[in-house]
């Protein structure tokens, strides 16, 4: 049974209380339970993490790359939060560590402020789920498993 890492970027620890009209009322703990259930149904474990710090997220991606090469990890479902629109370093980490990533956004970033329309992550992502609420994490897990079966 391989593991799927689910990474969450800045401010996602505030899910359920931060702008619930935009992000819903589910907490990050609720999302973790959903992810564990979805992965388990597909025969996988979840390594669920959140950080508000870019460097820590980069370290997690490097770790994922190593674990993928060792055959113990399938890939990463990643909601980079606002780092999506600012972090060339996360882009380079994903590319350099050769990590299959499904990029997830709870809200439809393309229907929001113009600065949210560009993603530094999308060009190195294996797939993208946008605007499906927290259900997007489940879709991301399913998509990652499907894509990796085809690889």
Automatic annotation (TrEMBL):
It comes from the Bacteria. It holds the Pfam family DHquinase_II. The record marks 18 as: Transition state stabilizer. The active site is at residues 23, 105. Substrate binds at residues 79, 85, 92, 106-107, 116. Keywords: Amino-acid biosynthesis, Aromatic amino acid biosynthesis, Lyase. GO terms for biological process: amino acid biosynthetic process; aromatic amino acid family biosynthetic process; chorismate biosynthetic process; quinate catabolic process. It catalyses: 3-dehydroquinate = 3-dehydroshikimate + H2O. Its EC number is 4.2.1.10. Homododecamer. NCBIfam families: aroQ, PRK05395.1-2, PRK05395.1-3, PRK05395.1-4. Belongs to the type-II 3-dehydroquinase family. This is 3-dehydroquinate dehydratase. The gene is aroQ_1.
